[in-house]
């Protein structure tokens, strides 16, 4: 029964996505179906052979590559009313991802054929995943101006051997929505003209070797994601970030930005995810403008020596679920409002600071949190965590020599400090059992 349902689903899917030329044949049975131009077909063969020469592509796929394409090659057929004899490749997906997306697999000795950027004038999506992982492969010195005129998505993921400066790729991409270059060997500066591509909704350039700085512009009215994390960027983060008013995610973590966290970040009223951790921002404290960002759900500033105290802003940020404030030189007490206001909190890191005083009793309300890390501070008094917090796993408290961990119902583990009342209760129980045993032995005798 399940198989018949699946077959019916596949049949309906095929019928709903069948190329228009199949339908058009009813009107003109003598008209041949549109075909891929020979030059474009040859370019597909060349590109496939460059990423994996072990597969005999011409033998396995000898016919029109749009009529019976290999996985990862997608063509668009024109509307049935349009008189044309040709179709074109509109998507290329290279590199095996999973059994559900069986793109052409790349071999360890894959190379980059320049035709990839020269022969596909109708390409809307280019996706390359784990193709260049062996010998070094460089971007071409030049790319034809026509490349990317209708491109909507340019995605290169986990190609560490692919190097070069990406400026050569960034042309007049008037329709580009996604620029995703993750885990490659790209270097040099981030081209300024990226910020002139007004249709962009995502710029993700993480885990490359980009250097220098950047300057955002207000032209990117549709940008939702800006991720430059894990690069070698330096200097001041630009105040113009605040002009990207539609941002939902901003990630500049693991770079070498210095100076002040730009106040312009506070203008991003729609921002949900902010990660500036492990840069060199310093000496200005936790920014108070966080309280003016009502949609913020996660904020990570760890590894910046911002110093100062944790501000009382949490009543305005009740939707926060993740806070990373490790290794920031924070001082003073932990605000009680972090426990009473943040009901959705699942991750809190305040470790390796100079915090002192008691842990607020309100922290005992954070039972839904997955991790609370308060290690290596100067906290004192009794920790307000019940057995359900799994102290040592879910809650981390080591490195606070004057902090007492109280457990009332569970025998203490080695090295734990218990309250005097709990210790007295345990001693009384032992004495009572001893008396009972002695009486039992005397009666038996």
TrEMBL record:
The chain crosses the membrane at residues 427-443. It catalyses: L-threonyl-[protein] + ATP = O-phospho-L-threonyl-[protein] + ADP + H(+); L-seryl-[protein] + ATP = O-phospho-L-seryl-[protein] + ADP + H(+). SUPFAM superfamilies: L domain-like (SSF52058). It is an enzyme of class 2 (transferase). The keyword Aminoacyl-tRNA synthetase does not apply. One of its GO terms (molecular function) is ATP binding. Keywords: ATP-binding, Kinase, Leucine-rich repeat, Membrane, Nucleotide-binding, Repeat, Serine/threonine-protein kinase, Signal, Transferase, Transmembrane, Transmembrane helix. Its EC number is 2.7.11.1. Residues 1-24 form the signal peptide. InterPro entries: Leu-rich_rpt, Leu-rich_rpt_typical-subtyp, LRR_dom_sf, Ser_Thr_Kinases_DiverseReg. It comes from the Eukaryota. PANTHER family: LEUCINE RICH REPEAT KINASE 2, LRR RECEPTOR-LIKE SERINE_THREONINE-PROTEIN KINASE. This is non-specific serine/threonine protein kinase. It comes from Brassica carinata (Ethiopian mustard).
